[in-house]
DNA sequence: GTTCTGACA
DNA sequence: TGTCAGTA
């Protein structure tokens, strides 16, 4: 259960998530409006994303890249309970350590190249 | 400086 | 979706 705790631990700010996912704040907020994600809120009403939210956002990005509309994405994601991120054996893509490492490298690259790096096109292949 | 909501091109 | 406004 320590796994779920870590995954739902609010750690990322909007800016970080933007770089991590390559999505714009506008999109992220829009997806939240459509109940695709449910970030926590901090003091000043700031969104605080958990590891799960980022992972979920990446899934959304993958679907978007495949030309799936919001309705379709919502359908796919609706099968994934928010807080109920059980140790789904045959569906687990990456371990926490791997995902963490991956995200960190993306951050570094995003920093080097300026803004959105390769996160946009290639990334979608690794997920889902 | 960063993020938030609402709104409009 | 982008972006501007007015805040917190």
Automatic annotation (TrEMBL):
Keyword RNA-binding: no
All copies of domain HTH merR-type, residue ranges: 11-79
Key word RNA-binding present: no
Top-level taxon of the source organism: Bacteria
Protein keywords: DNA-binding, Repressor, Transcription, Transcription regulation
GO MF entries: DNA binding; DNA-binding transcription factor activity
Protein's name in the database: MerR family transcriptional regulator, glutamine synthetase repressor
Organism this protein belongs to: Sporolactobacillus nakayamae
């Amino acid at each position: 259960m320590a796994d779920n705790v870590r995954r739902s631990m609010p750690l990322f700010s909007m800016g970080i998530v933007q770089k991590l996912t390559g999505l714009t704040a506008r999109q992220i907020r829009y997806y939240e409006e459509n109940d695709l994600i449910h970030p926590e809120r901090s003091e000043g009403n700031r969104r605080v994303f958990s590891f799960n939210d980022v992972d979920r956002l990446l899934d959304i990005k993958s679907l978007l890249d495949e030309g799936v509309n919001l309705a379709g994405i919502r359908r796919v994601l609706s099968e994934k309970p928010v807080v109920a991120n059980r140790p789904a054996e045959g569906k687990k893509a990456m371990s926490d350590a791997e995902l963490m490492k991956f995200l960190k490298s993306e951050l570094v690259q995003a920093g080097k190249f300026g803004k959105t790096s390769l996160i946009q096109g290639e990334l979608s292949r690794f997920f889902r």
